[in-house]
Design brief:
heterodimer; A: alpha/beta; Rossmann fold; 2 domains; 25% strand; B: 310 residues; mainly alpha; 13 helices
Chain lengths: 496, 310
Amino acid sequence: MNTNLKISNVTKIYPGCVANDNVSLEFNSGKIYALLGENGAGKSTLVKILSGVIIPDEGEIYLNKNNLKLNSPLDAKKNDIGMVFQHFNLFETLSVFENLIIDSDEQRESLREKIDLIMKKYNFSIDLDIPVLNLSAGQKQKVEIIRCLIRNPKVLIMDEPTSVLTEQETSELFLSLKKFSEEGILIIYITHKLKEVMQLCDEVAVMRRGKLVSVSEIKNENIESLANKMVGQNLKTIKKKKAKTSSDQLIKITNLNFTSEDPFETNLMDINFSVNRGECLGIAGISGNGQSELFQVLSGEIISEKNSIEFNNSYIGNLNPQERREYLMAFSPEDRLEQAAIPQMKIFENVALNNFKSSNFFNNGLINENKIKEHSKKIISDFNVNTDNIELKSQFLSGGNLQKLIIGRELITSPDLLICFNPTWGLDVGAINYIHETLIKINEQNKSIILISTDTDELLKLSDKISVIHKGKLSKIMNAEEVTSEKLGILMGGAN
Amino acid sequence: MIIDINFIGLIIASIMASAVPLILASCGELITERSGVLNLGVEGMMIIGAISGFALMTVTGSLIIAIFGAMLAGVLISTIFAFLTQTLITNHVATGLALTIFGIGISAMIGKNFVGIPGKEFPVLFENLKDTIPLIGPILFGHSIVFYFAFALPFMTNYFLKKTKIGLIVRAVGDSPVSASNQGIKVRLVRYLCILYGGAMSGLAGAYLSMIYTPQWIENMTGGRGWIALALVVFSTWNPIKILIGAMIFGGLTIIQFHMQAIGVRIPVQFLTALPYIVTIIVLVVISRDSRKIRLSTPSSLGKSFHKDN
């Protein structure tokens, strides 16, 4: 049976922002549709309208020619529209089965049978009786998917489903989605990742600033053409000029070890490397192989032996992050909202947190607000942060803007070394380009970077030297020109 | 010295009787908190229940009207709390404290005319069976209906939360109101009902004090039991069965320290009076140490306001 979903002239206006501007789209079952756009392009608003979470100001939705009035998530469910949210809608402390039965009218036993059938059919294996908080992100997503499948949906909407998944889990997800599609479920896939669109989808609709920009078939598109539509301008391809090889050593790590008491952390074993001035050292690896521990050891969140880190001819292994900053190191952690910035604090307050001695941000224990604000404004304009309100709480900045702000803040001291951990994680193409350009500029000023990243393309683009971390051990350090992504892939898998 | 075995039975029964208001109020508050609402107004709702029950009994002469009237009074005052915290999205802690202060004040005002009036005898059940079995007889028989209800309540609460669909919905709302709302659950309605239920149970607990336990009206007669009920909920890690244990320990120590004072044990009175509070909390902390279980039974959204953002 064919399913036809039609969105007709949908508009949703928020104060100060048109989230959806007269959007019309039509979908037919049997195909996988991509809804592509940068953060804030309005794709999430559109799918929330389809799932009844948000009520549009204008416009109609038709499912198989029937006009739907979706005033609540319940209405969407009743009309066989299922949605897997980007941020899971699960009850962490309830068991998997309780999570599934809560919106079902079926009896316990018959529901259990039904779930078992679904899990068998799609090769899911999840213990139904453990609390959801014990599941991995991939398993949680499967629970969400099962929750939709129980209702035999005609439409399944996936909102940025891969942002929390490992690569393995992503390919599993794609297999399942293709199966669902073959079985006649209409799939709408929301993402800003171009590769995934090319891999998975049949048709793509691109949104930009609340407007629908284009609808086309995947076979007529490629990554560049989609990127340009998404960003609305021709993207410069960034190419790093080959750095002059300097032999002026800036940081040297010798026999660094870290043994953790937490069984979920990775131990670091015998780490040795050095970085010269003006160089970018890339550290590749599959996430969870000790990157986070390495970052913490380098930044001083974890203190190590004094002699294990030599920076600018001083031994600093036993110093904390604040003290290391005085030696002109700077840090950009992976988790922007948890580690790098405090979400509930205003932009300028977050800038003040990087409180180094020469800043004059504080006089005799009092906050010098004017100075901080002045400086924050400078960061915002220098680093292209898309707001003019430094009183805004940081949590309201998009990921890209927040990352720009953090990098800007870290560069206040014009540090000799910037250590970044997944700086472009979860960002859209425009912001990624901007961050990459900034990092290249840093190298051009004869400053150094240690770039820990799980994105191989990024590493190959930016690094002068590359090493791979696997189970807490570093591979030998290679010149970037000699490395290919295949070679990195093999090393990341643990082979020599 | 020969100790009459029935005397021990009577002591145990008196311990159980003193635990009744704690069990009632705690089990009510437990449901409220499981839905994510922190109502610190238990003491206030109890005292309102106490004066309403006593006043209605004196005025109407009907015990049934008085008991249900006290519960209704608890519901009404908790409606204020529900309206403020759920509809006007005020802060739970501040609103709850205000409710307690309000309750104590208004009960004292209404109660002015009822000071010194003797209460009525409340009928007890199975009194004729009391002497049939030694020790067990006085424990099991000859109590008011509210007493039996209170001791069944923790088990019913447990069953409700674990086995029924509505119980599951209450827990889900307390865990994540946003997810619940996205699943089509009416978060505000659920929370309203849970608050009103908590009010009814606190009202009943108060009525038990003024009509059955010590049948008279004394200003401020709840004497901090509302706060103990709140503490029991938290330290029992939101587990109704552990509430029963905690309430029994508290009741037990309260009764025993009275007897110790009467016998003339050479321990400062202040220390003896403080003993039940300290020991109850220590015991509950010890039996609830498992951090995984705490994480699983603590309502994640406790005390946080929820408002739909669209």
